[in-house]
Amino acid sequence: MNTKKQPLFIAFSSQKGGVGKSTFTTLLASILHYRLGYNIAVFDSDFPQHSLMKMKTRDLTMVMENQHLKKLAYKQFTTINKKAYPIIQHKAENILESAQEFSEISSIPIDIIFFDLPGTVNSPGILKALAGMKHIFTPITADRLVMESTLVFTQLLQDVLMKKGETSLKSIHLFWNQVDGRESTPLYKIYNDLIHQLGLNLMESQIKNSTRFRKESEENTKTVFRSTLLPADENLMKACRLDLFVNEFLKIIQI
């Protein structure tokens, strides 16, 4: 009998590209693994981009070429005595079985496996993969097309898969990303009311709009935001309210 602790399967998922699912996968994985002490693994099945695999390659190059980041990385890895979390490239088909097998043969107990999944339901194996998650977090923006596709698909997952019991899903949570303070507050109220009317879960945390979500660190930077090797700088986290999101995220998953 396998008595090893079973990891939580979590995905940042969306049916629209460009809303931040890969970015939040990286941010949460790095914060939890390097700063908060959890053991994390990531499965990248977002074909054909595989942006997380590419990001790790870029991060390794940047750390080696930036003396300040090299010192930060050395200090971090000698202090926490942990390797970088693994990022495994895999097709969405049979990804659940591969993730389970990985956790069973891992020399350290894995707390969470994050999945970066394709952004279209037409991808082979995507519905099965989503149904195998414990929690799904979906970033949304105040854009009509984003909202329409997200609400329809989220309601499908909640009302069909979850209610029929054909899933491991415990919860699906929407959250506002790229919130611009200059945008109309009534617009967000209209969308919030609609989300509640549909019986969907909306997180209280709202991520403020920031260029940090859309670019890599500059060549000579001394701070890191989106990285697979280092956690986001705490001041940058507070500036976009990512710190509040992380706290709410941990309360939801109850790990």
Notes on the protein architecture:
This protein has helices spanning 21-35, 51-65, 67-80, 95-105, 126-131, 144-164, 185-197, 234-239, 242-253, and strands spanning 8-12, 40-44, 87-89, 112-116, 135-140, 171-179, 201-208. With 255 residues, it is of the alpha/beta class. Strand 6 (171-179), helix 7 (185-197) and strand 7 form a beta-alpha-beta unit. The model has no long low-confidence stretch (mean pLDDT 88).
Outline of the structure:
With 255 residues, this protein is α/β, with parallel strands linked by helices. The chain has nine helices and seven strands.
Helix content: 40-55%
Unreliable segments of 5+ consecutive residues: none
Residues in β-strands, percent = 15-25%
Number of helices: 9
Topology:
Elements: E1 8-12, H1 21-35, E2 40-44, H2 51-65, H3 67-80, E3 87-89, H4 95-105, E4 112-116, H5 126-131, E5 135-140, H6 144-164, E6 171-179, H7 185-197, E7 201-208, H8 234-239, H9 242-253
Parallel strand pairs: 1-4, 1-5, 2-3, 2-4, 5-6, 6-7
Helix pairs in contact: 2-3
